[in-house]
Amino acid sequence: MVRVIALLLLFCCSLPLRAETSLLISAKSGCTRADLQAAVDRYVDALKSGAPSSMPLASGAKYIENRKEIPLGRGIWQNPLPIDLHRSLLDVEACETFTEIISAKSRHQYVLGTRLKVIDKKISEIEALVTDKDDWLFNADNYLKYASQEKWDILPAAQRTDRQTLIIAANAYFDVFSDRSAAERVPWNIPCARLEGGAYTNPDNDPKATCTGGPPLEGTLKITNRRFIVDLDMGTVVGLVDFGEKDGWPDSHMFRLENGKVRYVHTLTVCPNGCELPKPKQ
């Protein structure tokens, strides 16, 4: 009898350890690129058809649009969305994706940047930045034109950059907005081009074009609430941030690095109350 009780106690005490070990194994296993791409494909198809229920949704899945949680089916989902171009980052470590979506040929033009959180091959969170004519430098025709000319393919292994270096490069860029000296830490490539809402810094495809002029309003405001999604195979990191401290604008900056240097930057910024910026500090 004593032996049976001892065995039962040993079994019960081992349950938390076994559960913790199982969670660690699950966390380490992450997601596959195929899993994440499948989720993205279903999301894009659902946007095209205006049918969010067609996605593989986890129980209690959240939908967040321009930083506000709303019922799935409202916002951008109220009508089918024609899509001219979409491009995705797949983060197998975080089990998240980020998809840039351009709808330029529709009656109401949009450019979207959407984060998906995937758990057990189901979508648990959808977080979308939805930009249109009232947002920062918006021009969907130009966004489609220039984005479609760029090359964002899978990089050869020798040209890839590790996760930490990608995030450091993105943070250095964001730091420039509050510290002008941070520009020296941004690993710029030549050529380099920035696409901001539709404004493009290298429309003539100049092979010597640079981005070393730095972002606008450098040294004037802080980029806060930074979160990152990283695709190592594509050499790409996106920062989901707030442009400013109090009531900051919802913003995404997507960076493509080749051989450790910034080749492209894409920016989407939502202006909830208009796009008038503070005057640069003297």
Question: How would you sum up this structure, described in words?
Answer:
With 282 residues, this protein is an alpha+beta fold. The protein folds into 2 domains: 33-131, Roll (Nuclear Transport Factor 2, Chain: A), CATH 3.10.450; 140-269, Nuclear Transport Factor 2, Chain: A. It contains 4 helices and 12 strands; from the N terminus they run H-H-E-E-E-E-E-E-H-H-E-E-E-E-E-E. It has helices at 2-29, 33-49, 140-149, 163-175; strands at residues 57-65, 68-69, 85-91, 96-103, 110-119, 122-131, 188-196, 199-200, 223-231, 236-243, 249-258, 261-269. The strands form 2 sheets. It has a 6-stranded mixed β-sheet. A 6-stranded mixed β-sheet has the order 8-7-12-11-10-9, with helices on both faces. The longest helix has 28 residues, at 2-29.
Short description:
The chain is an alpha+beta fold and 282 residues long. The protein is built from 4 helices and 12 strands.
